[in-house]
Amino acid sequence: MRVGIIVPRYGRTAVARNRLKRRLRALSAQVGNTLTAGADTVIVVAPAAYDATYAQLGDAVQAAVAFAQRARGSRAAPATGTP
To answer: What's the CA gap between 66 and 5, in Å, rounded?
Structure first.
């Protein structure tokens, strides 16, 4: 699994951006085993992520992974009757 992390500046310092990237890399490594092999994932950070705790970021990553798995599952099997 490959993970891309996009952390816009939002007027924050480089130290804050790098800390957020490190946290997200660690969290994505933890949930990496639950994703489909060969899946590419992109995480785009919202301004609120800078003020979030590690636990809050973890919950957000888990929710995003669950959403992605549901979306991928619904695309894998097309509805009956579609050409």
So the answer is: 18
C-alpha pair distances (Å), 12 with each of 1, 16, 52, 66, 75: 29, 6, 14, 29, 38
Please name which of 2, 45, 3 lies closest in space to residue 20, comparing C-alpha atoms: 45
pLDDT at 56: 95
Q: Whole domain around residue 65: which residue ranges?
A: 2-75
Q: Quick one: pLDDT at residue 24?
A: 93
Task: Tell me the average pLDDT across 60-64.
Answer: 88
Residue 81 lies in a domain: no
Note if the pTM is more than 0.85: no
